[in-house]
Fold each of these.
Amino acid sequence: MNKNTIPQNQSSEPAASRKKRASAGASLFDDEAESRLLGACLLANTLVAHCKELHPEDFTGTIYRESWRAILEWDRAGLPFDEEMLARRLRDQNLSIDSCVITEWMTNSLPDVQRCRRRADRIASLSRRRQLARNLERAQAEIYDPKISETAIAERMLADARVILENVAAAEPDHEESDGPPVAPEDTAALLEDGRQFIQRFVMLSKAQALVVSLFVLYTYAVEQFDCAPYLQVTSAEKRCGKTRLLEVLSLIVNRPWLTARTSAAALVRKLHSDRVTLLLDESDAAFGGDKEYSEALRGILNAGHRKGMKACLCVGKGADIKVADFDVFGPKVISGIGELPGTVADRVAPIKLLRKRPSERVERFRPRLVGKDAKKLRERLAQWATAARLKSLRSAWPELPEALSDRQQDVSEPLLAVADLAGSEWGSLGRRALTEIFGAVGAEDQSIGVQLLGDIKAVFDSNAVDRISSEDLVSALVEMEERPWAEFGKGGKPITKATLGRLLSKRYEISPATVRIGDRTPRGYQVSWFEDAFSRYLPFQVQQVQQGSIDAGLNHFSKVQQGAPVALVKSEESPMFTRDVAGVALQNPDSEETTVKRKLTELSI
């Protein structure tokens, strides 16, 4: 071919027209596929790395094209991005779109995020093919360019052809796109039971603890359907109780696990934002007990990540180009360590308190290489469980919450109970009992000294069966309580005084001592009626005894549980399964106690 000769039909067609025709003919996307790809990249920013060769012109719609252009720009600048940023960017370009539409892209692409991760190579191959198509289009134009030799053009086209042939197989349509047939509720129950058994193979847990952890595992595959992210606090009184082992087991089966013992605050924020991981944080006692600046940053991140919509802020950029960016740190977290968490964090967790196993108790030795195959099968089943239909069902679920729990405890319980109800009414009942137990087990360990004081004052009034008491007698009764802080509450380890008691009650609850008549005396003291409002607001409702066998039987013989069957109430002295006692409360009449327990359990429908 004479390189100086240009065919008449080629020269008569404008270059812009040829480009538009070639682009339209080479489109590999439809509107739904484009929106789902964009939604997946918004949900998991790291997916953009596998699609960087996709050019904005590969997208058919203007909104999709400009959205991808913005995402590429933010990714190259190292900036986090989300649906709100994208909506503002499009509106600035006079493209009418609401952020709720972009949120719908993300919702529709939730099942695709995992598939996109598994098909990262395919996405990269698709990107390369699109780039090669553009190279071919450019080469066709270069054929008629007298400044480029025929040899160079031939070599470039031959190289492109080889790459295309190598990538055709990898870029074939993926048949995993279908969600498959609808999954029956029994499959959720089977996954809960199998997950519980897998965890208890390696960690010594109570039945209630194992059930709650199993619910949490399934929840990690449906995080975005809820407004609140429950945390688990794995703690113990001493070392070698299985805290780290539980995190290691969970790292094999939860969704997108990230097991770490220490990381910088900036790295933690960016990791949570970009990868939407399930954080498995070990050695939290060292983190919160070390550098104050780091511990405060960590506390803020954990507080913000509990509720959807809250952000963690960091400075990004260098020099004069520093900007403040918001990062989304919402998601499930497991925090492990000895001791207590900061009060605001402890208020957002479901506590899993481990005990060191007895010499007679046995669990299987944890060898990741040996259990990896079983864990992989379970993890694949869990990923397949999160179908679009099931996620939609969870998104619209409003489970009944136990009245015995506080507002914050109900927030933590709601996503877990939504998963439990999805497995059937029996599992929903078991889940409510398990959560009531693990929260009730720490009910008397409230961090607030004021709540402890109210509980003990109520115990004094109840045990003495009086409606008023002098300050002197109340202080004496508090000091005599064993295993309570009042005997060493004052300065230098001295007992609490009447003045200190009065300041605590006045400052916290606006209750001040006054003159009261007790027989023929008129000392300064308190009437029980002055405390009624504080008792009702700050003291948890007490669930005393429930038959232990009810939850064990439900888990061990699940197929035999009758739907809607009532739970028998018995009075048992042997290790009650559900107890929630305030230390120091003495009930003198056994018959009265049993009557009170039954009445309260009836009110709770337990």
Note: The two ends are 89 Å apart (CA to CA).
Amino acid sequence: MKQLFIFCILIVLSGTNVSAQTPCPAQELQSISVNADSPCEAYHGNSHYYNFVTLSTVRNFVKTGTLTWQYRQDTVTGIWQNLSPAIWQDLGTDVITRADFTIADNGQYRCIFTDTATGCRDFRKVNIYVNPRPQFFISTDSIRCEGMYLGVQLNNDPSQVLTYCWQPDLSGQTNNCEGDASAFLFDRVGCVMVSGIVTVKVTNQFGCENMIYTSGLCNQEYLDLYTQVNDEDSIFCAKSASLEVRRFSIATLQTGWSYQWKRNGNNLAWATNSAIKPATSGTYSCIVTNNSGCTFETNPAAIIVNPLPTVNLQPAGSTEICTNSTLILNAGSSAANTFSWYRNNTLMAASADTLPVSTAGTYRVTATNAFGCTATSQPSKITVYRAKTTANGPTIFCAGDSVVLQQYTPNTVSWQWQLNNVNIPGATFPTYAAKQSGLYRAKSKNIAGCVSYSNQIDVNVNCREGSESMANLKVYPVPSSDFIEITIPEPYQHAGTLLLTDLSGKILSSTPISGLASQRINISHLDSGIYFVKLQSEHSTSTGKIVRL
């Protein structure tokens, strides 16, 4: 390390001048020698600056004694204090050192020698002063269209006269100054998250310097942009690749920016997003405006866009065909193309531009032209007209009851109900109340003229009939899903039996009645359907109907 002797005010007092301090001079100390690395203070910031200061006694070495080192900041009236062993090394010896000497250590130093034999003392003192280094930080003063303006904000003595050296990289060329003013325009692209991307060295009038860098500079509004073709090359199929505005830096495109794409120098009214899918060949660029009103046009990108094949699957939408009939689907595309047909998203073994279909499903076709560009049609939904009949209630019941059959197949325009495959006169409506046993179905026709026979429904009227009376037997509520209440007519209240049966007459339960005017029965365990309750006595029977929901 290069050694420099700093300017010191050295005051040496002889033994005859210390009578006020001690009754006798020791006449041992001659002077104090000062050695320092730099005339500038030590400083540890982004850059480290050391300053080793060494104080050495110059002695006669004729006497033996002890040494005491002291310091005071005020060289005239200051109070002497012993140096701290935590700061100064080797106190009590002839050579002491301070590793990081700063302006806070400036002042007057003395060494006191005390003769061991006589107690006589003498001392020598020296003034030590080092110059300050500029202490500052880098601020972001403003962000404009041209970039970020950085500044130096001084933290210590404002009277210093400063010079500046801005270095926007760490190339190792310490004199590679790109700016010598207190402010610096950082016009690099976007965000550069690299430690030390901008360094400034500031030097004061004493020749003392300090160097600080700023890291992670990020101008989110800087228009460091280019046109990106998101494909392997600049030749692609229409709308299969995109043009995008990208940033050179890692910053993202900012919310609030506006975009206007141009083709061959002309604005495209539809292209106002950061990415577009062009369908026409040409040279594209984009004018981007940021939130500060700054604008930038990206580099032109010349692309060749090959056309997509035309596909117009017919018939389109939904089509209903007759049972056992065939419909021809047409791709609506040039026969020179190749085709792939799909039913319910499953590839079919068909490759022509037409496809005969007789099965319901959702069909679509993909055409590929000579450029290798593909286009897929809108789906065509094919349904097969099939009539379906349902029963709105139990199909097993007693004589006098009925069940309503209905056939509400969409697109149906006419109906003819049949019993055992024979037309029922006048039964030409969507519903029919069946009262006889037999097989019922509906012959129907849709708006396209397709004829369909529905599924058959078996109706069975098979309750056992007898001389039963429904008089005076009240059952409620009907229908019910849990309990029913039965009012017992007076003739049955003294001696009778309450029976629960199904439609076939099978007895499900039997309960004796004696002295009761009503009876509650739990039917929650029964299946949904029609049931009967019967009150039997020696001379008569009364019946009521139950509907279990």
Note: Confidence is low (pLDDT under 50) at residues 1-22, 464-472.
